[in-house]
Every structure is written in C-alpha cells, then in structure tokens.
C-alpha cells in the first residue's frame, strides 16, 4: 500500500538539494514556478525555529494542459508540490503522491495521469538526492 507522502533523504545540503531539484526538473521541461521559504517567514515573526522548510511549486505547461483537460476539479492539485526540509543536519525531499490524491476520485484517466506525473517527480527527487 502506498503512503500519502513520498520521501527521499538527500546526500546534499539544503540549498544544494534545491539547486539539484531545479536542474533535474529542467531536464524534463518542468520548472519551479514558486519557492516559499516557510522557515524564514517563521523566523521573521520572532519565533525560535531551528528547522528549514522550503515549498517548491513545480509545473510543466504541457502536463498542466493535459491534467486540466480532464476537468477543472483537478485544478486543486496544481502545481505539483515538492518540499525540502532540514532538521538536525538531515535533508529530506518530500512530495504528496499525485496517485494518492487523484485516486480518491476513482476516474481511470485521472489515475493514468497521476501515475505518469508521480513517476516523473519521483525520478526528479531520487536523482536530485544523489
């Protein structure tokens, strides 16, 4: 049984991991459309926060077109989300599995698309973590 989250430990530092993800995404014509450094927001509000958490919103226009062609309901799953976390020197790359999310709708075409996108994202994460 698949879990909601896919996680892979990175052999790189925090920023180097994000750079590696960006490089791997470019190989498949995806890009980071937004980066949210949640840890900076928390620190700027005066909280003592020791972790690093960055949310990367990633997209490919062609894949988004295909997904949105299936129905507007799937728009809530866009863009794809990858997070990079660091705690106690350990860096992890995380993603909510598209298959877990879209399979809730029990529509075969959505499941095929989710499988495709998930395999792309897992490959990006695995390669970036090396």
Helical percent range?
Answer: 40-55%
User: For the report, how would you describe the main beta sheet?
Assistant: 5 strands, antiparallel
Distance between the termini: 26 Å
Q: Structural class per helix/strand content? A: alpha+beta
Strand order of the largest sheet: 1-5-4-3-2
Strand content: 25-35%
Q: How many H/I helices?
A: 5
The tally of beta strands, per DSSP, is: 5
Estimate the mean pLDDT confidence: 93
**Radius of gyration computed on alpha carbons:** 15 Å
Task: Give me some keywords for this one.
44% helix; 130 residues; 27% strand; five-stranded antiparallel sheet; alpha+beta
Question: Topology, please?
Answer:
Layout: E1 5-9, H1 14-27, E2 31-37, H2 38-44, E3 52-59, H3 61-69, E4 80-87, E5 90-96, H4 98-102, H5 108-129
Antiparallel strand pairs: 1-5, 2-3, 3-4, 4-5
